[in-house]
Every structure is written in structure tokens, then in C-alpha cells.
Amino acid sequence: MSRPKKPRQLFFQPGVRYFKPQGVPLRQLSEVVLMPDELEALKLHEQDRLSQIEAATKMQISQPTFARILGSAYQKISLAILNGQAIKLQQ
């Protein structure tokens, strides 16, 4: 049995819900779902330029957990781009 998830501190709320390839209707695309903690990790690390330790502290999680969340976000985004899928930002 796994441990229960610690609540994460999430501050960023995007103004959009989807990103998709141009010229293809959304109903024709499969989608990759980016979870709120993955989006927060991306924002803190890439846009705010925080180190993984600083960002993990801000989200109130451990650095290894932050690294796993960030890795998951990178993998989902790269799969969506390479396979022409839509990215849904879960709220």
C-alpha cells in the first residue's frame, strides 16, 4: 500500500485549458493530460528559474518528488509534440 499524497502548494492558474496542433479539430486529436502539480513544477523551474530544491520547498514537497513531477511533465509534453496530440491542462 502506498503512502497518501501530501497536498501540494499550487499557485499558478493558467488562462487556457488546451494546446493543440494548428489546423486539426480538437475532436480528431488524442490528448495528453497535464496535471496541476506538473504545470506548477514547469512554471517554477522554467519560467521562474528556481532550482529544483527552491521549487520543491515552495511546493512543500521533497526534491526527489519534485524531480519526478517535472520529469513526468517533460515526458507528457514531448510525447504530445512528437505525436501531434493535444495537451489538456487539468484544473
TrEMBL record:
Q: Which Pfam family, giving just one, matches this sequence? A: DUF134
InterPro entries with a match to the protein in the record: UPF0251
Sequence similarity = Belongs to the UPF0251 family.
Protein name per UniProt: UPF0251 protein A2209_02575
